[in-house]
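Quick review question:
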């Protein structure tokens, strides 16, 4: 069967309808709810499949339960959380995140970028009108609550907000050694959630007291989304908000260069004093997506990292953590080595943006090869291509949107 047909079937079988809403679950066995950035990925896949109505419904559903302050939650539990694999210890974590029917955390704020992409393909202004007030509240909330000292860099209060729960970028802040087992990691995250609860998920307090990372990926995604919001506000005739969003995006870009850039690489930073977290993960390529590198810097990044067999040029790229990091674990590492399709999709777009046609084509070809070899798995061993984690996982569909 043709790849796009397989992807159409996968999304169709993972699609759910609840009350007035339609959403897509990432994988039936392990991820039976709706996740924020996953839904954005799903919308891009639906657009690539020529199914914009599904893309719109996915987004209307994921914005349907903002928290009182405007934050869009990273999970909506359309089904009872208690039904989620009781025997799995992850269930404890899931319930701890929950308020009523949502989590209290968020995920990388890709949604405005996704909404603009849907609009560009459908020219449906009423869709924008419907969604813009929710987006406005969400991004305003982020810009205020996640940047209490006005540094123009947004903080996350928990690793899960980066989308990469166990990335080694967060080891030092969590006091974890480079190699540790999954259950130690889970204990640490449960402890952090307990702390998040004590500070009531109030970001300035949680960041000050417990966990405060200004992540490269989160802020790179933010830059693109603020640019999208600015154009969306223009379409809706709101010129003054359009300028405000554009200026906000420029400030984040400047702040990233000022605080994160060192020796040609952007590092996530922690705490109020902007301490750099010098841990090489796929995030070093996100500034390509954000468009904040000069052409020379981008060239050096591709040369010294993307094409470097010691770090990221594995047979089945891009490993989530560089091969020469002590924390690298290509088989059981989750975000500590295995290749994931969403990072490949972000990096592909970044490469295209800077004109690296050959590298982009190569990444697309290798991503498709992974799916042909191992199916729609959650992650892949970057050296052998073996499929890992959840099955019937949707992110592989993103290869259709590598155009
Ligand atoms: C895992 C991933 C996260 C994703 C979720 C649902 O927790 O780390 O990025 O959103 O699964 O697919």
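Suggested answer, residue by residue:
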């Amino acid at each position: 069967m043709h790849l796009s047909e397989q992807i159409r079937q996968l999304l169709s079988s993972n699609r759910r309808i609840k009350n007035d809403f339609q959403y897509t679950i990432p994988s039936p066995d392990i991820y039976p709810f709706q996740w924020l950035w996953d839904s954005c990925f799903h919308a891009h896949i639906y657009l690539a499949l020529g199914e914009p109505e599904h893309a719109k419904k996915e987004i209307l559903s994921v914005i349907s339960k903002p928290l009182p302050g405007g934050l869009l939650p990273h999970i909506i539990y359309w089904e009872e959380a208690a039904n989620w694999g009781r025997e799995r210890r992850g269930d404890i974590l899931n319930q701890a995140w929950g308020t009523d029917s949502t989590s209290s955390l968020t995920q990388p704020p890709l949604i405005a970028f996704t909404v603009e992409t849907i609009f560009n393909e459908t020219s449906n202004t009423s869709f924008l009108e419907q969604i813009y007030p929710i987006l406005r509240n969400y991004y305003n909330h982020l810009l205020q609550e996640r940047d209490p000292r006005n540094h123009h860099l947004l903080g996350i209060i928990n690793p899960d907000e980066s989308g990469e729960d166990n990335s080694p970028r967060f080891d030092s802040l969590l006091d974890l050694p480079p190699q540790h087992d999954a259950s130690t990691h889970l204990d640490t995250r449960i402890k952090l959630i307990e702390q998040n609860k004590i500070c009531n998920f109030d970001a300035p307090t949680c960041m000050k007291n417990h966990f405060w990372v200004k992540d490269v990926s989160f802020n790179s995604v933010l830059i693109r989304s603020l640019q999208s919001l600015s154009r969306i506000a223009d379409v809706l005739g709101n010129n003054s908000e359009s300028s405000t969003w554009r200026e906000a995006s420029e400030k984040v870009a400047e702040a990233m260069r000022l605080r994160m850039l060192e020796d040609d690489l952007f590092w996530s930073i922690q705490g109020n004093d902007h301490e750099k977290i010098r841990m090489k993960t796929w995030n070093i390529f996100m500034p390509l997506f954000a468009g904040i590198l000069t052409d020379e810097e981008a060239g050096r990044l591709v040369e010294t990292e993307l094409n470097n067999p010691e770090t990221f040029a594995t047979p089945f790229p891009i490993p989530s953590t560089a091969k020469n990091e002590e924390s690298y674990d290509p088989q059981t590492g989750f975000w500590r080595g295995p290749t994931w399709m969403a990072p490949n999709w972000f990096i592909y777009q970044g490469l295209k943006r800077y004109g690296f046609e050959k590298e982009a084509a190569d990444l697309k070809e290798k991503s498709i090869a992974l799916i042909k070899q191992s199916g729609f798995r959650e992650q892949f061993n970057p050296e052998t291509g073996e499929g890992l984690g959840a099955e019937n996982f949707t992110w592989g569909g993103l290869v259709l949107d590598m155009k």
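Why it works: Residues 26, 31, 35, 37-38, 163-165 surround alpha-D-glucopyranose (CB under 6 Å). The longest strand covers residues 15-18.
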